[in-house]
Amino acid sequence: xxxxxxxxxxxxxxxxxxxxxxxxxxxxxxxxxxxxxxxxxxxxxxxxxxxxxxxxxxxxxxxxxxxxxxxxxxxxxxxxxxxxxxx
Length: 87
Prior knowledge:
By secondary structure, the chain is mainly alpha-helical. The chain has a domain at 25-59. The protein contains 4 helices and no strands. The protein has helices at residues 2-11, 26-39, 43-56, 70-74. The longest helix is centred in the middle third of the chain and has 14 residues, at 26-39. The model has no long low-confidence stretch (mean pLDDT 80).
């Protein structure tokens, strides 16, 4: 009997959850509720399903193709000269 209890104790894991909060406008919340009602789900389940790809696949590291390149960051740099039609 004690061995069965030991096996059950090993299977139980301490899971730590983190809270994420964000704000929606009244119209956005109404749209979310209406969509969830039509799909017979909850807003929490819908949001979790929507972000599942990002929360499960990048646990250890993010693949190189998802990193921004240096050129992308310079796109909005104001110090560089801009093209002018009158030069």
